[in-house]
């Protein structure tokens, strides 16, 4: 067990009444329902959204239709950027739940599964680190971080990646109780991280596990044994899938290993945004708010215990390794910072317990103010969207294809959530740091819930491609399964497969597609005129053009045929 040398002392100028720790099955049930209420909004009732979720669902759809899971494919082409664990679990979830739910909603059962596993691992880690009754704070702090909430509701590989990190941390914590169990769980976490996004995840956790040997409490025979077990548990994960890929195609293995792992880290593959100076130092103060500030408070307040407190050492070393390694990478995205939230959430627990009365009251007042502003603003905007002609016209001008309409069930859910949160505020203790943590996470989740209920139809039209790709089907000949494409993005290829039943052969990677297919779909920008001219190679007739958002254009061309041949006629 990782021992916290002394329980955090409350530094307050005023007396503070004792608040019982959550105990028993009733408290556990309330916590589970709270976490479920946080994760469910946005999992159902919508199409896959660009960018990462759209192509992730496209690969899940390929697995459902073909049954092949070794080589991830997008719209018929191998897509080797990431290993397949998220797509495999999503395909299994879709097959189990599709009779009850639309296919994208059923596939997002994987998001619910991985989030639940993340919460369990974090909660048990915090309980071992800080004592009975404190474990529930870590997942509450995690879901209260500002940058996590939207990404953690998407069908993307990063959801499984953060689960791997949570499991890896739990394994390291458990090594103090049982080296075999701790090592096995940590190795499994490394394996899950590896099959989620490749080498970086297990690399970060492996460096963290070795760096902890710099501290005397970790230099024990049991911990060394745990490291050996961790390596043995990781090996099957690290060997099986790469070996299967190599067996099927050494070329694709090379593309995955060198281009999408080493090349991405070194910035040599031309994929992803280039890193900027001090990117994560500028991102984390708001992206990881408030967990990062609470964690910094813990490390500063307990700095005198740095030689003996294993909880202090684990949190700081893990976060520091991730920050240094990710900052050294030539590519950077806010999404890449999500694993840092695991050690930050664990390290933030003592600060929540040590918050003083005045600071908690100030934060509670700010939190309540923000909640009421969000509630009033959200409901006012929703009513204006439905009943004020000027607002309706503005929205329809910005989001063509959207028709505001009253939907009673989402409105009922939003109203019940508003009432529940208002009741929660009325019965919470404004001087208790634990209540403040719950209220902050609840308010953040409430804001997201409003968006995913009252404004979900608007967001779905704005973020989806149904208004373009569904009409496109009418211009296709019967049994048309594959066409050529030019400049078509990955999210668009995935959604074209789902909505129009079309796989694509990109001319950019297969030049023979110019001559092999008589239909060509071109994505362009109608505001700048980019790719808006007929293809320069061959003779083509424009058969369909659909526009989406403020700039995207999709043009379907048919190769010009002799007069006696069959053509696609506009309905």
Structural account:
With 571 residues, the chain is an alpha/beta fold. The chain folds into three domains: 317 residues, no CATH class; 107 residues, no CATH class; 94 residues, D-Maltodextrin-Binding Protein, domain 2 (3-Layer(aba) Sandwich). It contains 23 helices and seven strands. Helix 22 links the parallel strand 3 and strand 4. The longest helix has 31 residues. It is globular and about 80 Å long.
Which keywords apply here?
D-Maltodextrin-Binding Protein, domain 2; alpha/beta; disordered C terminus; about 575 residues; about 60% helix; 3 domains; disordered N terminus; two-stranded antiparallel sheet
How are the SSEs placed, and which strands pair?
Layout: H1 24-39, H2 52-66, E1 73-74, E2 77-78, H3 85-97, H4 103-107, H5 109-130, H6 137-143, H7 157-174, H8 179-197, H9 200-211, H10 221-248, H11 250-266, H12 279-287, H13 291-301, H14 310-328, H15 341-354, H16 357-387, H17 389-398, H18 408-426, H19 433-453, H20 456-463, H21 466-472, E3 482-486, H22 490-500, E4 503-506, H23 513-516, E5 519-525, E6 540-548, E7 552-559
Parallel strand pairs: 3-4, 3-5
Antiparallel strand pairs: 1-2, 5-7, 6-7
Helix pairs in contact: 1-19, 2-3, 2-22, 5-7, 5-15, 6-15, 6-19, 7-8, 8-9, 8-10, 9-14, 10-11, 13-15, 14-15, 16-17, 16-19, 18-19, 21-22
């Amino acid at each position: 067990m990782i021992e916290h040398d002394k329980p955090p002392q409350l530094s307050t100028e005023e007396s503070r009444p004792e608040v019982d720790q959550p105990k028993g099955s009733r408290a556990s049930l309330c916590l589970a329902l709270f976490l479920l209420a946080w994760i469910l909004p946005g999992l159902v009732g919508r199409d896959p959204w660009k960018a990462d979720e759209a192509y992730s669902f496209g690969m899940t759809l390929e697995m459902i239709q073909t049954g092949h899971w070794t080589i991830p494919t997008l719209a018929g082409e191998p897509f080797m950027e990431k290993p397949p664990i998220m797509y495999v679990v999503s395909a299994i979830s879709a097959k189990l739940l599709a009779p009850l739910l639309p296919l994208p909603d059923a596939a997002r059962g994987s998001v619910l599964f991985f989030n639940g596993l993340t919460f369990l691992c974090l909660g048990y880690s915090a309980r071992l680190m800080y004592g009975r009754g404190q474990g529930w704070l870590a997942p509450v702090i995690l879901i209260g971080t500002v940058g996590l909430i939207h990404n953690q509701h998407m069908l993307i590989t990063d959801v499984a990646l953060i689960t791997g990190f949570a499991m890896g941390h739990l394994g390291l914590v458990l090594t103090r109780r049982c080296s075999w169990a701790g090592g096995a769980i940590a190795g499994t976490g490394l394996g899950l991280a590896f099959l989620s996004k490749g080498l970086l995840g297990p690399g970060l956790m492996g460096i963290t596990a070795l760096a902890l040997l710099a501290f005397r409490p970790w230099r024990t025979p049991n911990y060394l044994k745990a490291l050996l077990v961790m390596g043995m548990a990781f090996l099957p994960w690290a060997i099986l899938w790469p070996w299967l890929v190599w067996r099927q195609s050494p070329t694709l293995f090379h593309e995955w290993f060198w281009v999408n792992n080493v090349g991405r880290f070194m910035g040599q593959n031309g994929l992803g945004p280039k890193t900027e100076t001090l990117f994560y130092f500028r991102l984390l103060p708001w992206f990881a708010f408030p967990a990062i500030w609470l964690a910094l408070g813990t490390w500063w307040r307990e700095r005198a215990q740095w030689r003996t407190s294993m909880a202090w050492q684990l949190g700081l070393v893990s976060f520091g390794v991730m920050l240094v390694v990710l900052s050294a990478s030539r590519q950077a995205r806010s999404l890449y910072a999500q694993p840092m939230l695991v050690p930050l959430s664990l390290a933030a627990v003592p600060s929540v317990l040590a918050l003083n009365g005045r600071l908690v009251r100030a934060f509670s007042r700010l939190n309540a103010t923000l909640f009421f502003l969000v509630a009033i603003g959200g409901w006012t905007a929703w009513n204006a969207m439905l009943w004020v002609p000027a607002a309706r016209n503005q929205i329809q001008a910005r989001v063509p294809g959207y028709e505001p309409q009253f939907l009673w069930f989402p409105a009922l859910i939003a109203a019940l959530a508003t009432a529940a949160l208002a009741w929660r505020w009325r019965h919470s203790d404004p001087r208790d740091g634990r209540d403040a943590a719950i209220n902050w996470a609840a308010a953040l989740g409430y804001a997201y819930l409003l968006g995913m209920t009252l404004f979900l139809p608007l967001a779905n039209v704005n973020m989806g491609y149904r208004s373009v790709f569904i009409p496109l089907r009418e211009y296709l000949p019967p049994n048309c399964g594959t066409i050529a494409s030019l400049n078509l993005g990955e999210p668009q290829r995935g959604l074209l497969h789902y909505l129009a039943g079309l796989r694509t052969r990109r001319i950019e990677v297969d030049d023979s597609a110019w001559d092999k297919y008589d239909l060509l779909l071109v994505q362009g920008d109608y505001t700048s005129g980019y790719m808006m001219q007929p293809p320069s190679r061959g003779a083509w007739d424009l058969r369909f053009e659909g526009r989406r958002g403020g700039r995207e254009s999709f043009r379907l061309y048919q190769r010009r045929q002799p007069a006696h041949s069959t053509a696609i006629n506009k309905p």
